[in-house]
Specification:
Thrombin, subunit H, six-stranded antiparallel β-barrel, PDZ, 387 residues, 9 helices, repeat, 21% helix, 2-alkenal reductase, alpha+beta
């Protein structure tokens, strides 16, 4: 009996071992169906989540498809003076070897720039620095068509320019976002032609609003975004999750030349104002009174005997300027322009620039600690370089 029990136990052990081997190496023989993987994974259904759904699986393909056709690649061509070799200036060299042709003008082509078609009539918004030195401009559409473009107007102080391609039908114009600033945290797409590799879309969020004092332009009110902006994206579109224009990509903060997640775009509302003026008048007109301003620091505020450090100190008054004619003096502390409180010199510059030439502006200031009110007639702001 003991012998039979031993044989039975050995047979069961062998059977279990055979089943274990078969289940490991040939699971289909045991379970009747093959197992696709060792770990079961959950696959999402083959449907695209709308961008408005938010989340990691959201797709912005519709927004990209809507806005990409309106973003163009800008080629510029300029005539530059070719350098001559220093040996050509040596009389002994020229005596024995002659004077081979060198130097003289030659054409230089650059393709690192983008633009946005903003009108069915062929008007294109881009950056001033993309086209300011160009003698000839050509734009390439997303569908491969290429057209010559002409400059309608430039605004170096906001770094915006308006181009136009004439007599072209079926142009895909972008739509501007509804009035109002985007909000910090909104998803945005940056569209352009980085490094000339071809049209590219990058995604990020609005990181901050109202960025200024960056030293990029005279008038700064940037949208900051972490959507990758690289050389070649300048002049391209920053769009919202619906594909509507919220900004014109302009600059990046970088130590390497590539994106570090800090990019800047000109808000669409500011770009729209510049665009309307350039189309109507060929240029942008801003107000000016001719003063040099200095920030009112706590130390200066204390020296002036002021309790509040808000305002801007007039450090200088240009001779013959509207400010001098209006009675402003160095040392005055400007506190408001047309009932707009003055926070710093930048706010004064922006407030005056919005006023039309000929308008008499009401300025409130402190002189010797006493409040006074003056009326100054706004003049036209001189263009850079006297143009």
């Amino acid at each position: 009996m003991h012998r039979l029990w031993l044989i039975f136990a050995q047979a069961v052990t062998v059977a279990v071992a055979v089943l274990f081997v078969l289940d490991t190496l040939k699971p289909g023989w045991v379970n009747g169906a093959p197992r696709s993987a060792v770990v079961t994974v959950r696959e999402a259904p083959a449907t695209r989540v709308a961008a408005s759904g938010a989340g990691a699986n959201a797709s912005y393909a519709d927004a990209a498809a809507r806005s990409m056709p309106a973003v163009v690649h800008v080629f510029t061509r300029s005539v530059v003076e070719a350098p001559t070799h220093p040996l050509l200036d040596d009389p002994l060299f020229r005596r024995f070897f002659g004077a081979p042709p060198g130097g003289g003008p030659r054409q230089q082509t650059s393709g690192l720039g983008s633009g946005v078609i903003v009108s069915d009539d062929g008007y294109i918004l881009t950056n001033n620095h993309v086209v300011e030195a160009a003698d000839q401009i050509q734009v390439a559409l997303n569908d491969g068509r290429k057209f010559p473009a002409r400059v309608v107007g430039l605004d170096p102080e906001s770094d915006l320019a308006v181009l136009r391609i004439d007599d072209v039908d079926n142009l895909p114009a972008i739509t501007f976002a509804p009035q109002g600033e985007p909000q910090v945290g909104d998803v945005v797409l940056a569209i352009g032609n980085p490094f000339g590799v071809g049209q590219t879309v990058t995604m990020g969020i609005v990181s901050a609003l109202g960025r200024s004092r960056l030293g990029i332009n005279t008038f700064e009110d940037y949208i900051q975004t972490d959507a990758a902006i690289n050389p070649g994206n300048s002049g391209g579109a920053l769009v919202d999750a619906g594909g509507n224009l919220v900004g014109i990509n302009t600059a990046i903060y970088s130590r390497s030349g590539g994106s570090l997640g800090i990019g800047f775009a000109i808000p669409a509302r500011l770009a729209r104002g510049v665009f309307d003026q350039i189309v109507a008048n060929g240029q942008v007109t801003r107000g000016w009174i001719g003063v040099e301003l200095q920030a009112l620091t706590p130390d200066l505020s204390e020296s002036f005997g002021l309790d509040d450090a808000s305002g801007a100190v007039i450090a200088g008054v240009l001779r013959g300027s509207p400010a001098e004619r209006g009675g402003l003096r160095p040392g005055d502390v400007l506190t408001s322009v047309e009932d707009r409180p003055v926070e710093d010199p930048r706010s004064v510059l922006d407030s005056i620039a919005r006023l039309p030439p000929g308008h008499r502006a009401r300025l409130e200031l402190l002189r010797g600690g006493e409040p006074i009110e003056l009326s100054v007639e706004i003049d036209r702001r001189p263009t850079p370089g006297g143009r």
